[in-house]
Structures are given as structure tokens and as C-alpha cells.
Design goal:
The chain is an alpha+beta fold. The protein has one domain: CBS-domain (Roll). It is built from 5 helices and 5 strands. The strands form 2 sheets. Strands 1-2-3 form a 3-stranded mixed beta sheet. A two-stranded antiparallel ribbon has the order 4-5. A hairpin with a 2-residue loop joins β4 and β5. It is elongated, with a radius of gyration of 18 Å. The two termini are 30 Å apart.
């Protein structure tokens, strides 16, 4: 069974984070610059939350808070769900579906090793399906 380590090996283990005391405007600019939808929130080198586009919409815009003065700590998602590198893709998908989240930090002990998104999961599963289809096609059409 595939593990999230395989996804991290393919996509890389870049971890984009922001300090818990940063402002929402800084986080939004950083996410825009990086072309990503979420940041891991760090306090004293430990992941303490997630901050995503959804948090901006629900907790900042809808609440009419000023992004230039609102601290990430006040609007981040916490506690966070995490998985280990050896967690299966199916288990991670289940956690993401059950918790209705799109970003899942991968931790090993106290260290954040990467992050997988629902898009990463779908791309990985699509690759597995394509491999299965190729195998079945070769079996059916070449096995005659």
C-alpha cells in the first residue's frame, strides 16, 4: 500500500510556514507569492496550526476583520490533524475527508517533513489507476 512518503518524494518536501504572531495580510501575500492555499503556523519551531484560504474567507472577511492588524493566532485552524511519513495514502485521504480539510502536515517526531494536499492525493491515485489500466489492457489485448 502506498504511503505519503511516496507523495513527498515526488512533489518535494518544501514546507511553507508562518509565525503565529504574523498578520493575516502577510500570510495572504505569502500564499499568493507562492501560489499555495495554506501555510503551517509555527510557534517556537513547533507546528501549532494551519492557516488557509478558507480561514481568510470564514474568519477574516466574513467577520469583517482587518487583515493588516489581525494576528494569525486569532484566526488559524487549531488543533491540526497530522500524519507520519509511513501513513498510507488511504488513511490520509480518510482523515482529510472526515475532517473536511485540504492540507495535511506530515510530521516525524517534532519535525514537519512536508505537507500533502487533496490535489496531491488525487494526482497520486490517478497515477495508480493509470498503471492498473495499462496493466489490464496489456493483459487483455496482448495476452490473447
Amino acid at each position: 500500500m502506498s504511503t505519503v512518503q511516496e507523495i513527498l518524494a515526488r512533489k518535494g518536501d518544501a514546507v511553507h510556514s508562518i509565525d503565529v504572531n504574523a498578520r493575516v495580510l502577510d500570510a495572504a501575500r505569502r500564499m499568493n507569492d507562492l501560489g499555495i492555499g495554506g501555510l503551517i503556523v509555527i510557534e517556537d519551531e513547533v507546528a501549532v496550526g494551519m492557516f488557509t484560504e478558507r480561514d481568510i474567507l470564514r474568519r477574516v472577511v466574513a467577520a469583517q476583520l482587518d487583515p493588516a492588524t489581525t494576528r494569525i493566532a486569532d484566526v488559524m485552524t487549531t488543533p491540526i490533524a497530522v500524519c507520519r511519513p509511513d501513513t498510507t495514502v488511504a488513511e490520509c485521504r480518510s482523515v482529510m475527508t472526515e475532517r473536511r480539510i485540504r492540507h495535511l502536515p506530515i510530521v516525524d517526531g517534532d519535525q514537519v517533513r512536508g505537507i500533502v494536499t487533496i490535489g496531491d492525493m488525487l494526482a497520486h491515485e490517478l497515477g495508480e489507476y493509470e498503471t492498473t489500466i495499462q496493466y489490464l489492457n496489456s493483459y487483455v489485448f496482448e495476452g490473447r
